[in-house]
Amino acid sequence: xxxxxxxxxxxxxxxxxxxxxxxxxxxxxxxxxxxxxxxxxxxxxxxxxxxxxxxxxxxxxxxxxxxxxxxxxxxxxxxxxxxxxxxxxxxxxxxxxxxxxxxxxxxxxxxxx
Length: 113
What we know:
globular; single chain; 4-stranded antiparallel sheet; mainly beta
């Protein structure tokens, strides 16, 4: 749930994030994703792990701030060889992205200050 009280649902079959209120009423949706799987909220920043080799970063208004990964399977730091399937941030602000399908690896992205 975000700071505005909206429940966010990753709908990977339809390439979107849907929003609902606490009563289950549909509010809105964001499109343009490639099989979004996991959402992580850090204040007003939304991180979305997408199964097509990328992580998207947006604000709470749905404006794209950044995108990591080329959408291709590339075995290089910062790229995703497998499918980003899980995403989490630790107390230092370092982001962890778990990949499935090929290497079953976890990449750590260290927050720059």
